[in-house]
UniProtKB/TrEMBL annotation:
Methyltransferase as UniProt keyword: yes
Protein name: EMG1, NEP1, essential for mitotic growth 1
Species for this entry: Babesia microti (strain RI)
Keywords: Methyltransferase, Ribosome biogenesis, RNA-binding, rRNA processing, rRNA-binding, S-adenosyl-L-methionine, Transferase
Pfam family name, one: EMG1
GO biological process, one term: rRNA base methylation
Enzyme class: transferase
PANTHER family linked: NEP1/MRA1, RIBOSOMAL RNA SMALL SUBUNIT METHYLTRANSFERASE NEP1
EC number(s) stated in the UniProt entry for this protein: 2.1.1.-
Amino acid sequence: MKLIATIILDGAEIEIENYKLKTEGLRPDILHQCLITLLDTPLSKHGKLRVFFRTISNQLFYISRKCRIPRASNEFNLFITELVTKFKIRSRETNGILAQAVKGNLTTLFGNNIIGLSSKGAPMNSDDWNDFKLASQIHDKTITNQPYTADYDPDGGNPIDLITGIPPFVIGVRAHEGLKDGTATKLVSIAPFGLSAAHCCAKLVSEIEHLWRIY
């Protein structure tokens, strides 16, 4: 069991620059806000968070913690356009992978224990955090804030297991729609009312940081 959390942003609506696609009503800003929120956290900066997103056309992408998401919306759209058309973005300085398309469905990649966040789910309780607590206990007697260096590298074949022993969380990022049926094996709620996807990301990561004592 590895001390690393996984969050999958599902149902991402994206705009492709210079492509003749219907973009009316799309909300790429939701994905944009969530990526900035997640990658700016101490959990991510210490290398203990992996972030993926899946588009409405079922393309799955990995975003490295080393990737700096553009803040301006037009620059973000250009970033996404490059990613979904070239399937990979590398660092100009190190040539390391910053973002990458990932083949396979969620169950094949992450196992059959996937937790979805939904206001329709059962209220999250202490038992839902057991895997996170266990990972903390067996990782080390005292958790240190040293960077976790085994970052996901798709070019390395199978450098790490996507199935870490800690169930991944799925957060929907499509406006006014919940998770598609079959996306998650279990639904939980973190509030008795609907929250923005970005707030769900922040609240979830904050709880994990508290459990793992990462600040």
